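User: I'm preparing a small set of examples for a lab meeting where we compare how different chains pack in three dimensions. I only have the primary sequence for this one, and I'd like the structure in C-alpha cell form so I can line it up with the others. Please keep the answer compact; I'll paste it straight into my notes.
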Amino acid sequence: MALEEPKAENKEVEISATHEAIIERVYYDVKSGFGSIAKTLKKARGSNSFITRDEVTAFLAKQEHRQAKKRRKDHSYVPFGPREEFQVDLADFGLTGPYRYALVTIDIFTKKLVVIPIKGKTSAETAVAFEEVLKILDVPNYVYSDEGG
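Assistant: Understood. Below is the C-alpha cell output for the 149-residue chain.
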C-alpha cells in the first residue's frame, strides 16, 4: 500500500497577466463589481472562458479591501462590500482659523476616511463638502449620521 502525499490546501496559483487584467476589470467595475468569487468568475468567463475559479480566488485574496473573516452570527455588523455604508459626522475644532469644522466620512468596509475642511456648518457648506466626499468615495447604499447639535 503506497502512501499518498497530502494535498496542499493553500497552493500558490499562477495567474497570467491577461487573465489578471480581465479579472481586475470585472471586479473593479463601479456598477457591477466587488462581487463574490462566483459572480466575478461568471463575468470574467464572459470575456475569456479559460479563466479558472482558482485564478479568481487567488486574485481576490490579494486585494487589500477583501473581507478576510466570515460574517459573525451575533449582532456585530460587517458590511458586504465597499460603498455599503458610510458614517458621517461634523468635527468642530473650535479654532479661530479659516477652517473651524471638518466633514468626516468613513466607508466602514474599506476603512477609507475622507476629511473635508469647511468654514461653517450651514447646510449649503455641508452639502458642498459631502458632494466632494461622493466624488472621492463614490455613492454608498446607506449613509448614517447623528442628528447634529
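A couple of notes for your slides: Helices lie at 17-27, 37-47, 53-61, 123-137. The mean pLDDT is 84.

User: Perfect, thanks.
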